[in-house]
Amino acid sequence: MSFVRSADEEAHPLNRAISAGLCLFTFLCLLTGCWSSHELNSISIVVGMGIDKVGERYKVTIQIVNPSQVSVKKASSSNGNAVVAYEETGMTVPEALSRMSVKASRFLHYSHLRMVVFGEDAARAGISKPLDFLSRNMDMRTDFYFIVAKQAKASDVLNLISVLDPIPANNMYTMLETSDKYWSATGSMNLNRLLQEVGTPGKSPAMTGIEIIGNKNIGKQSANTKYVKPPALFKYSGMAVFNMDRFVGWLDENDTKALNYVQNSVSQSTGYIPCPGSQGNITLQAIRSNSVIHPHLVNGAPEFDVNIGIDGDIADVECTIDLSQASVVDEIEQLNNSKLETIIEQSIAKIQKNFGADIYGFGKTFHKKYPQSWHQIKNWNEVFQSVKVRVHVKFTIRRIGTIMQPIEKITTE
């Protein structure tokens, strides 16, 4: 038996130690550090931002959360506001925000930004410069929404105290999501979509408008929350039309609905038609909608067919009709088809004449199908003003409810 250890046996423990050290070093290299982290007690969480134009300068308003007033323990006993608003001006948006460091005691943190509000003056002057900052900032996510203040300044909107939600920016965010889902007269616009539409030839953006209903001076005070019927409220109203990056005008409710149907942005909506052959109205609820734009090249000129398929329910009947008859249901569908086709075609013609901005995306679909012809067009918005658009709606009634006859007829028999 030999008691002498070989060289390989002597080196084995050392090799194991070196291997373990290398593995540990590699693992530590894979760990990410918190080089950009900030403690909660050293930051101000920005939830809303307003951008106005004053002469050549930007006036920027930010809405930040007051953590001492939104905590569960203090919310019921404190009379303070849940948010604080700061305003500052600068030649650029980031300069104005940097100037706020002399007012805000903490670092401004943008990862929870919910709403960006453009004032009409700022939107009319062009939004590309503010968008450049918003898209470059690494602290911002892309899921916040853009809106335009209608006949008001963005600062007025962000200084209004909301009733149901102590944080007004969150209130605006949830309001927009709800109305976008259940009522087709609004639309949500996030950063990625806005950048795409501003930079894509053949598709101009449109953003939901917000206005203040009532006395905005009282709306800035905590007294606004002490009434059953508040003196001032937010209300989403129509959409702002942009030609490239500049605001050019407003869409009303019907025009906004038409836009959403064409660009396939309707989840649910409600409308009505006159009762066939009698007085009263029938209310119809759209529960599903699908739209497809078909471009054509006819004698060298672009033309479009818009096919819209809608599934819906009968929600209300105010006249004496028999819904058990298939012919009656067919007549209701045809009446609704004709009404929607007329509304959408008239709306498109109005936008062509008044604004000349393709907010529907006709040019985008034409570019995709006919790239060679597209590159021969120098100014699509000029061509868009005279293109022919035909709208075809097929509304299918899926449910008529649990009763065949209207309640009014049943109670009179």
Features:
alpha/beta, 2 domains, 413 residues, GMP Synthetase, Chain A, domain 3, disordered N terminus, nine-stranded mixed beta sheet, four-stranded mixed beta sheet
Tally of domains: 2
What is the averaged pLDDT score? 87
Largest sheet: 9 strands, mixed
Shape: globular
**N- to C-terminal distance:** 116 Å
The assigned structural class equals alpha/beta
Using only CA atoms, what is the Rg?
29 Å
Helix content: 25-40%
Question: What is this structure's SSE topology?
Answer:
Elements: H1 7-30, E1 43-54, E2 57-65, H2 67-70, H3 72-75, E3 83-90, H4 93-99, E4 107-109, E5 115-118, H5 120-125, H6 128-136, E6 145-149, H7 154-158, H8 168-182, H9 191-198, E7 206-214, H10 216-219, E8 232-243, E9 246-251, H11 253-262, E10 269-274, E11 281-298, E12 301-317, H12 326-354, H13 362-369, H14 371-375, H15 380-384, E13 388-399, H16 407-412
Parallel strand pairs: 1-4, 1-5, 5-6, 6-7, 12-13
Antiparallel strand pairs: 1-2, 2-3, 7-8, 8-9, 10-11, 11-12
